[in-house]
């Protein structure tokens, strides 16, 4: 158990703008050029050793130039998965035996390393491996991950300080915030280096050891995240990274009796598969595994006739097309009153067509390629369907080209039927469906959009009329875990807008908040009686 020291008060890491001529721009350009010309081996990290199994070597390529290899990863077999699980179990007594301060210091140091000497490396790896522009990499790989590490320490200390309010006379009650009784399996998505870094480290901060399976498409930045954590002093075996598609790792990890939790972010389909596998094996675990999963979304923008057209336009363009629409929070459906759309449509169409798209090595681009051939095929099919559907008009974009990179032009659809698949299906790409409604039907539009899709992650209302804002806020209470008023539905900041949704969008444990960290503890209540009774009878018996 830990002494109660104070931890540094967290503040959000300032976003560097990488303007031309700035020193951070020079650093980043240099690091981008270096990583572009290197080809890294991306080994597993098991028990502190970098392991190259050599079973199925897969090239990690730049999405905007898919013939250019940035690294080679080694897909884990069940042998590596077994070794990772065993290493996590072996390291557990040492790790939970450290004081909280010792664990916290490692992640605070990691945050400072990332804020300083490691910033350009993680940003550059994210720009090249995941095709993020400089600003999108900076808010993710640098700022959000630094914030996760600093704010988690603050929230964890608060949790550990939580003790029973009442001690009866002669009694001392204590809460021992134990880690879980087993290992945690962290499975992370391609789209955020910060999420990939947070999912294994949040349970580790609370004293758990972890098997981490990153997305193959995020493997380059994941590799440097492990190297950074090692430099920060993370002991061997606390986080064991295994690469690959995850099937072999799940075969081992989900079948192990000591699986104590899954920390997942990714698609709804994958999370449901994992949950099902845990359910089928439930009688074989020593404890009930904690299942935390943040999953898919179908973010909305709802405009009221009182909305500012300029605010709406910016929310649509940034919300839908930044990072190629590959944020779970992205705006992928918009509801716009006819009176506003008639004056705004040409501007939105022209602005969409003007968005610059190309390699992230060219800092002038607003967006780049989608992540891989599977994503490209999904968007191609959605665009082809839109072209072929009478009730859908393709207003902007609607083209794609994968000859060099997986490029999909930002696409704006005007859709007559608000129940169309473009309002219900997560494409996870740069496709925004717009439904134009008669101004006097605002309230029925709000009711329809509330439950048209299974997802409930993000949403925004754009309006000046306070009563309209209030009605949307109330009616859409369960339609979004992150709800924005007069802003885009993306860009949640740790410590400011804890992030997560419900329904098919996840367990809503809110990454980077105390609610998430609580899932990685299993409190023990200790009652100590100073002068215990020595007679078993009661006064009424005498
Ligand atoms: N709600 C949120 O906070 C949030 C944040 C980011 C992304 N997302 C969602 O993530 C999705 C995009 O990410 P993605 O394409 O990487 O998702 P995905 O579900 O395809 O993959 C997520 C991770 O699961 C792994 N995986 C797949 N099958 C597995 C198995 N059987 N065993 C172990 N691991 C397995 C993948 O390799 C990857 O590491 C979108 O649906 C997006 O909305 C949600
Ligand atoms: N937290 C990010 C979304 C993460 C999902 O991809 C945002 O708010 O835009």
Automatic annotation (TrEMBL):
InterPro entries: Ald_DH/histidinol_DH, Ald_DH_C, Ald_DH_CS_CYS, Ald_DH_N, Aldehyde_DH_dom, P5CDH/ALDH4A1, Proline_metab_enzyme. Its EC number is 1.2.1.88. It catalyses: L-glutamate 5-semialdehyde + NAD(+) + H2O = L-glutamate + NADH + 2 H(+). One of its GO terms (molecular function) is L-glutamate gamma-semialdehyde dehydrogenase activity. Keywords: NAD, Oxidoreductase, Proline metabolism. Residues 56-522 form the Aldehyde dehydrogenase domain. Residues 1-24 are annotated as: Disordered. It comes from the Bacteria. It holds the Pfam family Aldedh. Pathway: Amino-acid degradation; L-proline degradation into L-glutamate; L-glutamate from L-proline: step 2/2. NCBIfam families: D1pyr5carbox1. Belongs to the aldehyde dehydrogenase family. This is L-glutamate gamma-semialdehyde dehydrogenase.
